Amino acid sequence: MAPKTSISDIDAQIEKLRERRRSLIVKSAERFARAATKSGLAEMEITEEELDRIFEEIAVRFRKEERRGTAGAVASSRRRPSGGSGTPQEVSHDG
User: How far is it, in rounded angstroms, from Cα 19 to Cα 24?
Assistant: First the structure.
């Protein structure tokens, strides 16, 4: 028979989950902040409403890909193994 779980045990589990949730939100925010900085969006004068609209458009695009079942294939082809910024690699014109 499993031991009884006390209210304080449940409260501790809830607090751990809240902390985990906060951590995931922070990591997600940092990820988007890096993308905005790399792309130059962080330096542009864009209203909150415009940013909300832009991100909603992006979300709709990726939700459509998930429904088609191609999100994995598309996402893997978009990622650069070298950790690049996502822009096409330039050819060196040094010599």
Answer: 9
